[in-house]
Write a structure and sequence with these properties.
four-stranded mixed sheet; single chain; 7 strands; three-stranded antiparallel sheet; alpha+beta; 18% strand
């Protein structure tokens, strides 16, 4: 139940057969990985020593991951005006809404969020700075601004684009974006946002706040990964 099929739309480099075989391959690789770990730990230590340590790590890093994450967000970033998050689970969203963060922030999720994949982009707006909360969601308008005929590797929940107005009356377009592993969607998504704001009468006066997981590479494989310097040149050309 924890494994998910690898989608070609998110990883264009894989073949259709590899997409079909992704679940059994994940199962096999997981079993090999676990076997190596158990053999290694039994070689350098004893089960009565390393297994309690493993249990403690699992408790802290896996079972209590969501509560710990929410605690950090609240204690460290709780006074922020805007927080953009990527790869957020449905569980974290639900607990955030019903916890201390929900009292401080409007928690905006995309209408097309994926409750199964658990990789959703989320925006937190301070209720003090943005008393009216989200004015509108424009995610679909951003996706509609992609160039015709271009296959942009984005999945449900990757883009969350909204508008909001602060207490001083300044209008904003605020976007949270989770890029694909190879970063190939990063430039097209940014270009679409800029194009939409430049060509939409209702967005011309809005300021852009864009938080993203760009997934760019210092030494990218040409045509397969997004080079970080090319990404930099792209947003500079957009006046960002």
């Amino acid at each position: 139940e924890m494994l998910r099929e690898k989608k070609k739309e998110k990883s264009p480099a894989i073949t259709e057969q590899e997409e079909k075989d992704s679940l059994p391959l994940q199962t096999m690789c997981g079993a090999i990985f676990d076997s190596i770990l158990v053999h290694m730990m039994n070689t350098v230590s004893k089960p009565n020593i390393w297994q309690p340590l493993k249990k403690k790590m699992v408790e802290s890093l896996n079972k209590k991951k969501v509560p710990h994450t929410l605690e950090i967000l609240n204690n460290v970033y709780g006074n922020s005006d805007i927080i953009t998050l990527q790869e957020v689970s449905a569980s974290l969203i639900d607990q955030a809404k019903h916890g201390p963060l929900g009292k401080k922030f409007w928690i905006a999720v995309p209408r097309n969020m994926d409750p199964v994949r658990d990789q959703n982009s989320v925006i937190l707006l301070s209720k003090n700075t943005f008393p009216e909360g989200v004015v509108s969601e424009i995610t679909e308008r951003v996706e509609a601004a992609f160039p015709a005929g271009v296959d942009v590797p984005v999945a449900k929940g990757d883009i969350n684009a909204i508008t909001a107005v602060d207490t001083e009356g300044t209008p904003y377009v605020i976007v949270s974006f989770h890029g694909d592993t190879n970063g190939l969607a990063t430039i097209p998504v940014n270009n679409a946002i800029v194009h939409l704001m430049a060509t939409s009468q209702d967005l011309l006066k809005h300021k852009l706040i864009f938080g993203l997981d760009a997934n760019t590479y210092e030494k990218a494989k040409s045509g397969k990964q997004q080079d970080v310097l090319e990404w930099g040149k792209s947003y500079v050309l957009n006046g960002q």
